[in-house]
Write a structure and sequence with these properties.
The structure holds two protein chains of two kinds. In chain A, about 75% of the residues lie in helices and about 0% in strands. Chain A is an all-alpha fold. The longest helix of chain A is centred in the N-terminal third of the chain and has 29 residues, at about 30-55. Chain B is built from five helices and no strands. The chains are: A mainly alpha, B mainly alpha. The interface between A and B is large, with 37 and 41 residues. The structure holds protoporphyrin IX containing FE (2 copies). One protoporphyrin IX containing FE sits at the interface of chains B and A.
Chain lengths: ~140, ~140
């Protein structure tokens, strides 16, 4: 007898398997926004460490500064800057979402909706930024 | 032993540093949005964007105290926010002990050193260093 038909005789309907998620923090939007917020925060932090050092070269000589900032203008770094700006824009908008959820009862109840608003604003901002930036990087 | 003995500890006194850290993350975040978005707009969007940045560009910006203070405020707020956020992450993934102390010490040292360095760079900046080729300098150096 095929296994599949055995169940139809007696087995009561199995209770729906509980999916992970459904709390404010675990699974789904709550967790993914948290993971992304953490990863982007770390990435921006390490960029900033390097960025202050490269800016400090203005105290060494114009040649030294221009040499380093010249690497920011290469195609590969140009793409890296799109990733950096993408990380910052997400961290910034999602940071605002966190603040609203913490202080405003309506936002706490609608935190999932707010997450999708963050995603939408991120897409719009990146659509405004990326073409213009890439034209600067790949032309002239 | 009664339950009373557990709660007999007097409430902690003094300021709650974790609470102020929590507030700082939020207050600095709101200000940083303005500062960083403004920084990125000025340096990546206006004119030829990243292609226009060189020593002369920085000289032109820091000739104006407005942009000097903009950058110094951004420097302090972002580094303290970032280092404090990294401290939270270290707390999450390490147990109390030597490793945790070393990591937090490194975060503190890096943030403190870069705040001092960055502040000095902005306020001791020399836009027209003697002997440098004129075509690398901001245009106002010629005068
Ligand atoms: C690819 C993107 C970026 C470019 C091309 C860029 C470029 C520059 C330039 C040219 C300067 C010199 C002064 C000025 O123009 O105001 C500067 C300084 C500075 N930038 Fe950026 N920046 C970028 C992203 C960022 C980000 C994301 C942050 C913050 C997290 C940041 C924080 C700073 C700070 C704090 C200073 C002042 C440094 C000091 O005091 O010595 N920058 N940046
Ligand atoms: C653009 C404006 C920014 C906003 C609105 C913002 C907002 C926030 C908020 C609300 C938190 C959560 C704090 C908590 O849960 O107690 C946070 C965490 C964090 N932020 Fe930012 N932030 C901004 C910029 C930055 C920058 C420039 C850096 C790096 C230098 C950074 C690095 C971090 C890190 C590492 C964390 C910890 C993440 C975690 O605990 O998972 N943020 N930010």
């Amino acid at each position: 007898m095929p296994e599949t038909s055995a169940g139809t005789l007696t087995a009561p309907a199995k209770p729906a398997r509980q999916k992970p998620g459904g709390t404010l923090y675990r699974g789904r939007e709550g967790m993914w926004s948290w993971v992304l917020h953490r990863i982007t925060g770390v990435a921006i932090f390490f960029f900033l460490l390097v960025h202050i050092l490269d800016t400090a070269l203005v105290r060494v000589s114009p040649e030294a500064y221009n040499a380093v900032i010249g690497t920011y203008q290469t195609p590969i770094m140009g793409l890296g800057e799109v990733a950096l700006v993408g990380a910052i824009v997400f961290h910034a908008f999602n940071g605002l979402r966190i603040i609203l959820v913490d202080f405003w009862a309506w936002a706490t109840r609608h935190q999932k909706l707010l997450f999708w608003i963050v995603v939408g604003l991120w897409v719009v901002t990146m659509l405004a930024f990326t073409p213009r930036h890439l034209i600067n990087v790949f032309s002239h | 032993m009664t339950a009373m003995e557990f709660s007999a500890r007097p409430p902690r006194r003094g300021i709650n540093l974790e609470k102020w850290g929590w507030i700082y993350m939020r207050a600095s975040g709101v200000v940083l949005i303005v500062l960083i978005f403004g920084h990125l707009f000025m340096n990546l969007m206006v004119g030829d964007g990243v292609k226009a940045i060189d020593f002369g560009f920085v000289g032109g910006k820091w000739a104006d105290p407005f942009w000097q203070w903009w950058d110094v405020l951004m420097l302090w707020l972002a580094l303290i926010h970032g280092a404090n956020g990294m401290r939270t992450i270290v707390n999450d993934y390490t147990n109390p002990g030597v490793v945790q102390k070393v990591l937090k010490g490194a975060l503190f040292a890096a943030a403190a050193a870069l705040i001092v360095l960055g502040t000095l760079v902005v306020f001791t900046f020399e836009p027209c260093p003697v002997g440098a080729p004129a075509d690398l300098l901001p245009s106002f150096c010629a005068a």
